[in-house]
Fold this protein.
Amino acid sequence: MEVQVAPLRAWDDFFPGSDRFARPDFKDISKWNNRVVSNLLYYQTNYLMVAATVVSIVGFLSPLNMLIGGTVVVLVFMGFVWVSHNKDILRKLKKQYPSTFVVAIMLSSYFLISYLGDVMVFMFGITLPLLLMFVHASLRLRNIKNKLENKMEGIGLKKTPMGIILDALEQQEESINKLADYITKVKE
């Protein structure tokens, strides 16, 4: 299936008034995770634009360190994904605690970058965009269009770059299982 770039959402949809934002339910991690995954899929092009702006600013100020930092993070991410696909213990850990997996990638990257050079480039150029995305995805309430788009991605009717990343982190399977359970209940 061909990878499609998600459309850029309107600014007033991406960042509307405070009525479309709410604190997530920290007691229900599954629901919070579902909100984050849904928003990451729906607003992925907006997040890419925000990240590109921050990376461009930091990259302009320190291009070599930004290149080194980005390379280290990508290599560490690919290494963790490869290891987690080949080791059952890590695969189970990644599925049960996806945020722990991401934190492990970021901490490993941080220590490698601190060994190689400029930590501030890592903090502002790589971690800040990820933090902004996570905070927005955690606080932004979903709407009907958001849920519909995510179902299409979840059942495989379309494939986007964020969907590929979430598949690597094994965050998409849960939505498919929920949809299959729902369809089974409807048939009964």
